[in-house]
Structure formats: structure tokens, C-alpha cells
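Researcher: Please predict.
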Amino acid sequence: MPSVDALLLFFTSSILLALAPGPDNLFVMIQAAQRGRMAGLAVTLGLCTGLLVHTTAVAFGLAVVFQASALAFNLLKYVGAAYLLYLAWGAFTAGDSDSGDSRAVDLSFARLYRRGIIMNVTNPKVSIFFLAFLPQFADPQNGPLALQIILLGALFILATILIFGGISLLAGTFGSRFRESTRAKRLLNWLAGSVFAGLAVKLVLTER
């Protein structure tokens, strides 16, 4: 297993990466502001479940497919972009209803959890990032590489839960003031739709 110093360095790096502005923490922030703290936590758990998939892919060599195959990379990113556009459409149309957030508040914890999984798994850049990042802290002299990668992935997920969980609590508390107003609800829906559409465009333009 990696040394304690290496694990501490990796965990600190993971905390800083989770804090850096990116599509995942922005996604969590918008969901929490629009639907409440539990919604943000549900999406966070979904994103972290997606990270389990990417960790497994790196540990057993599957992530190399997205680095080597343009077809696999592009196919997955277009699926992810299409899903984000679907979320954008839902947010925009929810803003047209008289009750403002009527569609949004009906989303269950399970649906928001699945939303986080799909958002993360359909981004091939995460697998490629893990493929480049995790092995830097693994050493064949410290035991099986697959087990080390899994351990590092678990630490990265822990850092993500801590930071994204904090974002969920803050954004959910701040957003509660806006959710009391129908006009503010519509504004949040339009903001969410714009963010989803922007993330979709960014994902389509992503190169390996």
C-alpha cells in the first residue's frame, strides 16, 4: 500500500481539485440551490457512485479505451451532452409553469441520485483524468496496483463527499430564500437550464 505521506499528499490534492470550479461542483450547487440541500446531497452521492465506475475502469485497464479510441470517447461525450440538454429543456419548461418549480420539487432522492451517476459516468474526461492522476501515487513495490488504485479512488471519493456536501448545504440554505418566491423559482430554473446547456456545449467541445 502507498505510504501515509503519499496518501496525505493525495488526499490534500483531491480536496483542492474538488474545490476548483468545475462542471461537477457547479452541477451540485445548482441542484441544491434549485431543490434544496438533500437534492444536492443526492446528486453528490450519484457523482461519487460514478467515480466508483471510473476508479474500477482505471484499476482494471478499461479507461485506456477512452484514451485510445476516438469513437468510444466521442460516443460517450455525445450521450452525456444529450442528457445535459434534456435537463436544460426540463429546467426551461419548468420555469413556464405558474407554480414555478412544480416539476423540480417532485424529483425523488433516487432520481436525483441517478442524475448524478449519469452526469459523471457519461463524461469520458473523468476516466482519462483518473488514468493520469491516480497512478502517480501508486507504486508496484507497494503491492498490487489495482488495489492501490481502488484505495486512492476511495480517498478521492471521500474528499468529493466532504467538499460537495459542504457546497450542497451552503447552496441549499442560500437557495431556500429564493424558492419562497415564484419569480425567483423561475429565475433559478432558467439559471439551471443555462448552466446545463453550457455544460453540454463544453462537453461536446471537449477533446481527448
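Model: Residues 4-68+102-180 form one domain.
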